[in-house]
Structures are given as structure tokens and as C-alpha cells.
Amino acid sequence: MNHTLIAPTAAQPWTTPRIASTREHLTRAADQLWRVQDNASGRVLGHLRVATDPLGLRYRAERLHLETGVFRLIGEFWRVDDAVSALRYS
Asked: Which end of the chain has the smaller Cβ count within 10 Å, N or C?
């Protein structure tokens, strides 16, 4: 199943990506950024950022480094579920 997003217009924000896993949920953090949270503990596993690419949408798994306030890239994926899995297991 393909879970792609449609690029928003100026009046329409990005829609939340649908993930297959029931272990996590996404909470909007910014226009193209969502927190990935564990359903059981409520712990933030990291962030999911949607980026446009000439070949389609890319899903970036990121973690916020609190000491510097900078997001660190865990990986970049074509499928949203792969990005969520990277945050779960890293």
C-alpha cells in the first residue's frame, strides 16, 4: 500500500502521514514535521520530516539533540513506515 502525501497549497497544510504500526502515533510539531511517540509509554522516539524530492516524497527520521538544539538525521526513506521503524530501533 502506498501512503504518499499530496503537496499542499498555500491554503492547505500538509496532511499527517498514515503509518501502519499501531505501536506509535504521529503528533504535528510543524508544517512538515511530526513527533513520533510510543503509544505505550508516551515517549517521543524522534521526529518525522517530509521532504520533497524530484522523484517523490522522502521521509526523514530525525532526533533532536537537546544540547545543541539541532535535529540529527537518522535516515531518509521512501516509505513512512521505514522511517518510523528506524526511530523505533535506533
From this structure: N
Taking the model in full, what pTM does it have?
A: 0.83
Place of cell 530525525: 62
Check if the beta carbon of residue 12 is closer than 8 Å to that of residue 73: no
* Cβ neighbourhood burial of 32 (10 Å; 0-12, 13-18, 19+): middle
- Which residues in the chain come in under a pLDDT of 50? 1, 9, 11
